[in-house]
Write a structure and sequence with these properties.
With about 130 residues, the chain is an alpha+beta fold. The chain has one domain. It is about 40% helix and about 20% strand. A hairpin with a 5-residue loop joins strand 2 and strand 3. The two termini are about 20 Å apart.
Length: about 130
């Protein structure tokens, strides 16, 4: 029975994460691209709005533009019982910290709660995506 539940859970997570990019491009690459987009694991192309790229270019140091991978992935934080999310990556954390106005717990990882998620997804609806993990 347990193995069947694990298989069902894995299939559910795969379905919920089908929009996650198979490969992410840097902010620098996307600023120079005629069409700023990424392909999800489902084969669908997802566009990132030019305004969001320009906003990010305005708050990211020039030398960090090639390091910032988009979309920024916000994943479920299963290590925290209150239903939190997290962002990982040094540059990603620096950017998210500026947007939500909160210091991160670590240089390369930051926990987000519902008000932060609302703020972040309002500012960057197409330059962020969510990943559900067990």
């Amino acid at each position: 029975m347990r193995m069947q539940e694990d298989t069902q859970m894995r299939k559910l997570l795969e379905m919920m994460n089908r929009h996650v990019p198979s490969k992410r491009a840097s902010l620098a690459e996307l600023l120079n691209a005629p069409e700023a987009e990424y392909q999800g694991k489902d084969g669908v192309r997802y566009r990132i709005k030019r305004g969001e790229l320009e906003y990010l270019a305005g708050i990211v140091d020039t030398w960090d533009r090639p390091k910032l991978k988009l979309p920024i992935i916000i994943m479920t934080d299963t290590g925290y019982e209150a239903g939190a999310w997290k962002v990982m990556g040094r540059v990603e954390v620096k950017v998210v910290s500026k947007i939500v106005g909160r210091e991160p717990e670590a240089e390369d990882q930051m926990r987000l709660f519902h008000p932060h998620m609302v703020q972040l997804r309002t500012v960057l609806p197409t330059a962020t995506t969510t990943l559900f993990s067990p």
